[in-house]
Specification:
The chain is α/β, with parallel strands linked by helices. It has 13 helices and 27 strands. Helix 5 crosses helix 6 and helix 6 runs parallel beside helix 7.
Length: 413
């Protein structure tokens, strides 16, 4: 039976009430599907919508009727308002995939490209979880969007395997990272010292990752293996620094229209979480360099990434998957962050016990910490030397206080 074409008011006739429904998010969030959910409302009963919702980008709550809920792994401001109906699980990506395989979504709502000549609909800019899970999801409802690029790598889903579909054009959500500043540029220079020709890079979005990628244009034979790319990865590819052939494996793209327009050319291979974040695969990558950010790093060398002044923002995300996976293969795990915040008033290098929230990356997950003041290599040294190296890259006006705090702690060790 061919899939049924739907009008926006007809979702409740095919989406089963209750159960768990996986929805596309990131740059593939569908305004049309969100509208259809809102119209369906209470007819969906105790349905739970689940996705990877990015703060600042994904603003839909997916809360349909009075009995619906949301399961999320990142907390957007919009979802925080409805905390009584939101289940937040702070999981890494491998554990998210494991959870979704165990709970088995009963339906999926996703955006995809129109079918190609073989009848396959590419998941485009968000392959991530849906590519792993769709074969075991019984109800598959697509928003077929001509603006979605057909990304190479994963084929997507056969049109004939859809339960139903909507068809309408919608611009993809874009996110343009602020231009690097002198702090980000200085951090990038220090990070680049650890990236040799032939390295494979994992990083994400933001001023610092973009600055790092921009600093590598003189390298050769680089590769990318990461969960998320932005325009910085496109600039690196266009610089000629990437190895020839299939040199970039990614799961999601979030960036500008220029980035999305370049994705069909085979420059980036889009693969699901079972490939991008799998520890076994990562352990076999030679010269893997993971570059992740943090809100704070304490003097033991532990990173904190989840709790902001306005509350929890996320779980550990994919960073912990990559740092664990890189360790067996002898990769280098880098955490990069500005030395201070609020005009130098607050140190982001903090005493042990002063980090906000849970530890996101343990002292066993980090090899190098970088700020604009230098790089602290924490490999193969004890607590005292780790602390002293971290203090040396803290903001100069914070070093005395950090030294005093460490002296008190060290006396108890």
């Amino acid at each position: 039976m061919s899939p049924r074409r739907l009008e926006v008011s007809e979702l409740a006739s095919v989406l089963p009430p209750g159960g768990l429904t996986l929805v596309s998010s990131c740059s593939a969030e569908s305004a049309l599907l969100a509208e259809a959910v809102e119209i369906a409302g209470d007819a969906l009963a105790e349905v739970t919508f689940c996705g990877v919702f990015v703060p600042g980008l994904n603003r839909t709550t997916w809360l349909a009727g009075q009995r619906s809920r949301v399961l999320t792994f990142f907390l957007t401001p919009e979802l925080r308002v409805h905390a009584d109906r939101v289940d937040f699980l702070p999981l890494c990506y491998e554990d998210i995939l494991r959870l979704l395989r165990e709970r088995r979504p009963t339906a999926a709502l996703f955006m995809c490209a129109p079918p190609d000549e073989d009848g396959w609909c590419s998941f485009g800019t968000e392959v991530a979880f849906i590519a792993d899970l769709w074969p075991d999801i019984p109800v598959r409802i697509a928003h077929i969007n001509a603006a979605m690029p057909r990304t190479p790598g994963d084929r997507g889903v056969p049109f004939e395997a859809l339960t139903a579909y909507f068809q309408a054009d919608q611009p993809l959500l874009t996110s343009v990272t602020a231009a690097p500043d002198p702090v980000a540029d200085a951090i990038a220079v220090h990070v680049a010292e650890f990236i040799a020709d032939g390295s494979t890079l994992q990083t994400g979005l933001g001023k610092i990752p973009d600055a790092v990628l921009s600093a590598l244009g003189d390298r050769c034979n680089l590769r990318i293996h990461t969960g998320l790319i932005g325009d910085g990865a496109l600039r690196l590819a266009r610089s000629g620094a990437l190895a020839a052939g299939l040199s970039a494996v990614v799961g999601v793209a979030i960036g500008s229209a220029d980035l999305y327009g370049a994705l069909e050319g085979g420059m980036f291979q889009f693969r699901p979480v079972s490939i991008t974040h799998a520890a076994r695969r990562l352990s076999r990558i030679e010269h893997l360099v993971t570059i992740n950010s943090a809100l704070e790093v304490d003097l033991f060398g532990q990173a904190f990434t989840e709790l902001t002044p306005t509350g929890l923002m996320s779980g550990p995300g994919g960073a912990s998957d990559f740092t664990r996976g890189a360790r067996p293969g002898g990769g280098i795990r880098i955490v990069a962050l500005p030395a201070s915040a609020r005009g130098g008033k607050i140190s982001r290098i903090v005493p042990p016990g002063a980090g906000a929230g849970p530890v996101s990356l343990s002292r066993m997950d980090i090899d190098i910490v970088v700020t604009e003041h230098g790089a602290a290599d924490l490999r193969g040294i004890g607590y005292g030397d780790r602390a002293r190296r971290l203090i040396a890259i803290a903001a100069p006006n914070q070093r005395s206080a950090l030294t005093s705090a460490w002296t008190e702690i060290e006396a108890k060790l």
